[in-house]
Amino acid sequence: MSTPILEREPAAASESPTFTVTLIVRRFDPEVDAEPRWEDFDVELYPTDRVLDALHKIKWEQDGSLTFRRSCAHGVCGSDAMRINGRNRLACKTLMKDLDISKPIYVEAIKGLPLEKDLIVNMDPFFESFAAVQPFLMSSSKPKDGKERLQTVAERERFDDTTKCILCAACTSSCPVFWTDGQYFGPAAIVNAHRFIFDSRDDSAQVRLDILNDKEGVWRCRTTFNCSEACPRGIQVTQAISEVKQAILRGKA
Ligand code: SF4
Ligand code: FES
Questions:
Q1: pLDDT value at position 104?
Q2: Radius of gyration over alpha carbons of the chain, in Å?
Q3: For residue 224, what are the contacts with CB-CB under 8 A and spacing of at least 6?
Q4: Which residues of the chain have pLDDT under 50?
Q5: Which atom of ligand 1 is nearest to the CA of 231?
Q6: Ligand 2 atom 1: the closest Cα is on which residue?
Q7: Are residues 26 and 101 in contact, defined by beta-carbon separation less than 8 angstroms?
Q8: Does the reported pTM lie above 0.85?
């Protein structure tokens, strides 16, 4: 028996009224521009559209040279962090209806990392700091039963928050210390060190604590909370940094 073909319901968005929004995008083409410049685009959108949809409409319908990173479009890959109206956000998680569309929306690249083109920055310094904290499980001991490293619910809970990081750099590039001091490890590297420092299966916490006790480590943090506010995963970044500071001073709790 053949399976009946279901008729597709009209998309809810098509029943919503559209509106025109002005996006002002900070553009930079290293082959042409000496300095970045702002460019306006008027885009017709639905309230359920996201800033990423607006950028796609510009790229596909108005100016194919507009350059930005994105991959998953659903807040998982971390590739489309950018400054939207002066705040670090993921373009794919920022709905138009949550912005004040009576005014232009300003979109620019995240700060503190070298600008390459339009909304794209060079992420190498960010990932070098991430790699420097050795963000992987290190254990020289054998599992007690010879097979598995068991962990209680409470032990897993201890570092649950910092497992959620998607390495988008929204936190690090919102940090005023990182803007002025290119050597600072930055919040994201500390979050990823925290994830392993407090993992009961890992026995190299002291290695990472020594790395972050450096003059460019956790003591550079001025507790401005920009990082926690910027994190699209809701990670308590400032708290994680504070816990690493406590572990350096008093040992791992
Ligand atoms: S801690 Fe949050 S803001 Fe920072 S890199 Fe990870 S997901 Fe992005
Ligand atoms: S495109 Fe993957 S997080 Fe936005």
A1: 98
A2: 22
A3: 175, 176, 177
A4: 1-8, 10-11
A5: 3
A6: 73
A7: no
A8: yes
